[in-house]
Amino acid sequence: MRKTGWIAFGLWALPGIFVCLQVSAIGVLFLPAGLLVTILLAKFTRVWPEVLGISEGLAAVCLLIVALNADYWSCPAR
Q1: Residue 74 placed within a domain
Q2: Contact, 50 vs 12, CB < 8 A?
Q3: What does the chain look like in DSSP terms, one character per residue?
Q4: Which pTM value belongs to this model?
Q5: 4, 5, 25, 46 - which has most CB atoms within 10 Å?
Q6: Would you say residue 1 lies in a domain?
Q7: Residue 18 in contact with residue 33, Cβ under 8 Å?
Q8: Residue 22 is part of which domain span?
Q9: What is the tally of structural domains in the chain?
């Protein structure tokens, strides 16, 4: 039986995180794990509409980057 619902949606965020990290220097290390997670999720969860969780993973990485750089100022204060 394939899993459905919010848990499957949240699990689909993992491939999104791996895809988003591909643009970084350590992204190549995440490629095999991302492919494995994607294949396992496609086998054990319902694909549509839970696959939209990939966008949640992309957004989570972007939010993390923003949160880590929240105190950065591009111009010096006068």
Answers
A1: no
A2: yes
A3: --B-SHHHHHHTHHHHHHHHGGGSTTHHHHHHHHHHHHHHHHHHB--TTGGGHHHHHHHHHHHHHHHHTTT--SS---
A4: 0.78
A5: 46
A6: no
A7: yes
A8: 6-68
A9: 1
